Amino acid sequence: MKVLLVLTACVLVASCGTSAAPNAAPNAGPNAGPVKMRAEVLAVLPHDSTAFTQGLELDGDRLIEGTGLEGASSVRVVDPKTAEVRRKVDLPSPMFGEGVTVAGSKIWQLTWRDGVAFQRDKQTLAEVRRVPYSGEGWGVCLDGQRLVMSDGSDKLAFRDPETFDQVGEVRVRSAGEPVTLLNELECTPDGVYANVWKTDTIVRIDPASGNVTATVDLTGLLPREDRADDAVLNGIAAVRGTGEFLVTGKLWPKMFRVKFVTAS
User: Fold this and answer.
1) Burial code of 184-207, b = ≥16 C-beta within 10 A, e = fewer?
2) Count of other CB atoms within 10 angstroms of residue 224
3) What Rg, from alpha-carbon coordinates, does the chain have?
4) 3-state secondary structure of 125
5) What is the pLDDT of residue 228?
6) How far apart are CA 248 and CA 257, in angstroms?
7) What pLDDT shows up at residue 223?
8) pTM for the predicted model, two decimal places
9) Cα(230)–Cα(32) distance, rounded to whole angstroms?
10) pLDDT of 264
11) Across-strand partners of 259?
12) CB neighbours (10 Å) of residue 228?
């Protein structure tokens, strides 16, 4: 997830379940393998190639994007069709920005190792308050009632969307094995989708059990020869009511509208 951080990615153990439909509700047991899926590209859209994307979420016709790197971190409102930045607020240097999510009339923005979550006004992006937390911040999304937060481990923490207090957690497993390096998150009725850092894989997680119910292979979406080593896949935004997603990566010049379908 980070430029200088060296970690070892876990191996996802996966087997194909032929009876599961794309975006179906999770139903795998703790030792069952996840459904294998792929991305069907529906459209290619522009994306700011200078944006080190850490968080991505659609709010109506606005794309809320959080970016990272010390001295270059921001939260911004973007036109998803043109990549035009409509509004932008920079984080105080040297803070390193991370995931973002909309919660009612507010936006939560994480920081990596600064131990601070920013609560912002959704319309103006103005800072409302700062809330301290322990550990690292990577991804965050709202499942309707709780914030779901990743920290680069195999853990998803649940937090109160008003106070940011932790109210629970779950460990993520694929066929019984831990899945670490969980990065940017997107909450949907079908589960929590998570980028796995330094891979071209997205996993779908049942937040009740922590079981991975699907793995999505996005290999070749933006060929590795067309991006730097740290320009990894990161950024998932559900297009509500369609079963489709916007996906991009750090420093990617393109964003893709896709549908996740069962791999043949």
Assistant:
1) bbbbbebbbbbbbbbbbbbbbbbb
2) 12
3) 17
4) coil
5) 79
6) 9
7) 85
8) 0.87
9) 33
10) 77
11) 40, 244
12) 10
3-state class of 226 per DSSP? helix
**Contact by Cβ (8 Å): 125, 107:** yes
Residue 99 near residue 90 (C-beta atoms within 8 A):
no
- Select from 160, 169, 259, 234 the least CA-distant residue to 205: 169
Q: Please give, one letter per residue, the 3-state secondary structure of 17-72.
A: CCCCCCCCCCCCCCCCCCEEEEEEEEEEEECCCCCCEEEEEEECCEEEEEECCCCC
Q: Tens digits of per-residue pLDDT, 50-76? A: 999 999 999 999 999 999 999 999 999
Q: Specify the pLDDT at position 121.
A: 97
Q: Where are the strands (E) in 70-146, listed by range?
A: 74-78, 85-90, 97-103, 106-111, 116-121, 127-132, 140-142
110's tokens: 């994480």
* Cβ pair 148, 185 in contact under 8 A: yes
State the residue for tokens 């080593």: 229
pLDDT less than 70: residues of the chain:
1-32
Q: Which domains does the chain have, with CATH numbers?
A: 35-262 (2.120.10.30)
Reference 130, options 115, 143, 149, 145; nearest CA is: 115
